[in-house]
Write a structure and sequence with these properties.
Structural class: alpha+beta
Number of helices: 3
Radius of gyration: 18 Å
Number of strands: 2
Strand content: 5-15%
Distance between the termini: 20 Å
Shape: extended
Helix content: 40-55%
Length: 129
């Protein structure tokens, strides 16, 4: 077991402190990579609910049957996933080229398994085996 202390300093002087408990060894996952992984999971969740509410009108669901509620949420999640993949592939800023499907594979693998791969932001300083 491994305990990592996280401390964030806000501009107003407030300090937020949290602890993360993980069973990833320090050889498998550095502190920086664990931080990037945890922050990306929160970002995905928060952005997903924010998009569902503000862009897809799911603040008020107009269906009341169990199956129709489930269907609306599943279709919305599918739409959000497809939009995200489209944005990653075709919409890019700067002079770098659009990413190919093979370029996106390490990012998908990292989000699924939590194991850092080459090119994953925040994981550059992980220990090499």
């Amino acid at each position: 077991m491994r305990v990592i202390r996280y401390r964030q300093h806000h501009r107003n002087g407030e300090i937020v402190e949290a602890y993360w408990l993980t069973n990833f060894s320090s050889r498998r996952l550095s502190r920086r990579c664990l931080y990037a992984m945890a922050k990306s999971r929160w970002q995905i969740e928060n952005q997903g609910f924010n998009d569902a509410k503000n862009r897809y009108g799911l603040e008020h669901i107009r269906h009341h049957q169990e199956r129709s509620l489930l269907l609306v949420w599943l279709l919305t999640c599918l739409a959000l996933t497809l939009e995200r993949l489209y944005r990653l592939r075709y919409l890019h800023r700067g002079a770098h080229p659009a990413r190919t499907a093979i370029d996106l594979l390490p990012h998908e693998r990292h989000s699924r398994t939590g194991v850092c791969g080459p090119g994953n932001k925040g994981c550059e300083n992980r220990p090499r085996s």
